[in-house]
Amino acid sequence: MMFRDRGQAAPGTPARTAAAGWRVMAGLAAAPVVVVSVFRAVPREWPTTVVQLVSFTPWLVLPASVSLLFAVLGRRRWMAGAAAGLVAVQLFWLVPLDYGQAEADSAEGTAGDTLELRTMSLNAKLGKADAAEIVRLVRENGITLLTIQEYTKALEDRLGAAGLAELLPNRISAPAGRASGNAVYSVHKLERAGTVPDSYFSMPLIRLTAESQGKHAVVELANVHTRAPVGVGLPQWRSDLAALGQVASRPGNVVLAGDFNASYDHAEFRQLLQGEGRKVVDVGMAQGSRLIPTWPMDGLLLPGITIDHIVTSPSVRSAGYAVHAVPGTDHAAIMVTLSVPAGG
């Protein structure tokens, strides 16, 4: 006579067949998570398809969780343990340990007087963004510094007609077609200070001087628009991010704002944040908004990802990070209040 554990179904029974089916489903759900997780974990120069897949890493927690559920139903402890480990890895990437470090870094500028810059950045999608909505956001949110990518002459005219110059009278702009135009508007004094070297799209460097109640603060601002990691553009994307990392590591108060075409899950972007000699801060990360997507916002059937960022030197504090959809563009407007040490 054969004996079995009481909790184990007999071979060929419906319960055993169902458990085997759940194990198959667990494996199918886990397979793409494992593949993309390997790409995310290994920092090397992956090809274009891999770079694009890694962008969607935050969403992997969903199939990983489904795999864990199926593994539990499949009644295999080792499979359930492996699936639980896979979920743990995804959660670790969702809430990385350097969150706290970013917050500590951003608090370095708390001592002494500061001046506030209520900052907003937007990729206008070939100048098609709704100008009236941009002006409304500027007015209602008290924006004092606005950076725009993919800025065209037509958009410049519409923004003027909508009254942007009355709110932000200082402007340095270079309208152009084919996604290469850019503009910075501000209530504060702006001066050209060069460009990010060897970038695909022109990324201007602008010296902003804020003055209020006898205090002044100086910021070196980069209006960011890297080339997308698509096809032959992949090496240039890496080069653009590396060049921005060098700008971010400069002394003083530095702000990089715009469309990085990169998420925190890209090793190239994390390397930028490491800087050369000092870490810099992604304010979305520091404010706990890693999972608020900025693209695509126009109905594309893709999970949303965060590729628009405001990155600052550790001396600059941040608060009030927010994301707003703007009709006409596939990118969201991002905004945050930056507190810049006076006298720098």
Which structural traits does this protein have?
single chain, 6-stranded mixed beta sheet, disordered N terminus
Can you offer a commentary on this structure?
It is a single chain. The protein is an alpha+beta fold and 344 residues long. Helices cover 36% and strands 24% of the residues. It is built from 11 helices and 12 strands. It has helices at residues 14-41, 48-54, 61-73, 77-94, 98-106, 131-140, 153-161, 164-167, 234-248, 267-274, 283-286; strands at 114-123, 145-149, 170-174, 182-186, 189-195, 204-212, 215-225, 254-259, 281-282, 308-312, 317-324, 333-341. Strand 5 and strand 6 (204-212) form a beta hairpin.
Number of helices, counting only DSSP H or I runs of 4 residues or more:
11
Low-confidence stretches: 1-7, 102-110
* Fraction in helix: 25-40%
Residue-averaged pLDDT, rounded?
A: 90
**Helix/strand-derived class?**
alpha+beta
State the total count of DSSP E strands: 12
N- and C-termini, Cα separation = 86 Å
What would you call the quaternary organization? single chain
For the biggest β-sheet, the strand order reads: 3-4-2-1-12-11
> What does the radius of gyration come to?
24 Å
Secondary-structure element series: HHHHHEHEHHEEEEEHEHEHEEE
Note the overall shape.
elongated
Main beta sheet strand tally, sense and closure = 6 strands, mixed
